[in-house]
């Protein structure tokens, strides 16, 4: 997720705002401290303009 976020020039704050979540939650997801629900994967994918499966692949 971090790679996709940076490729799109989003800060954690900007991505959080686009998804209606807190910036600390974005950070926790990027550091694998939490797992996103399928609804959150959809919201993040929409904000990043990618297919949700892109967020589920390890790279």
Keywords:
5 helices, about 60 residues, mainly alpha
Helix content class: 55-70%
Count of extended strands = 0
Mean pLDDT: 95
| Helix-strand category | mainly alpha
| Euclidean distance between termini CA atoms | 10 Å
The coarse overall form would be: globular
Structural features, described:
With 59 residues, this protein is mostly helical. It is 64% helix and 0% strand. It has helices spanning 2-7, 12-19, 23-30, 38-48, 52-56. α2 (12-19) crosses α3 (23-30). It is globular and about 25 Å long.
Q: Could you give the topology of this structure?
A:
Elements: H1 2-7, H2 12-19, H3 23-30, H4 38-48, H5 52-56
Helix pairs in contact: 2-3
Write a brief caption for the model.
About 65% of the residues lie in helices and about 0% in strands. The protein has five helices and no strands.
């Amino acid at each position: 997720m971090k790679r996709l976020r940076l490729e799109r020039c989003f800060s954690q704050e900007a991505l959080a705002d686009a998804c209606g979540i807190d910036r600390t939650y974005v950070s926790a997801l990027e550091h694998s401290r939490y797992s996103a629900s399928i609804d959150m994967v959809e919201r993040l994918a929409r904000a990043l303009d990618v297919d949700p499966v892109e967020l589920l692949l390890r790279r």
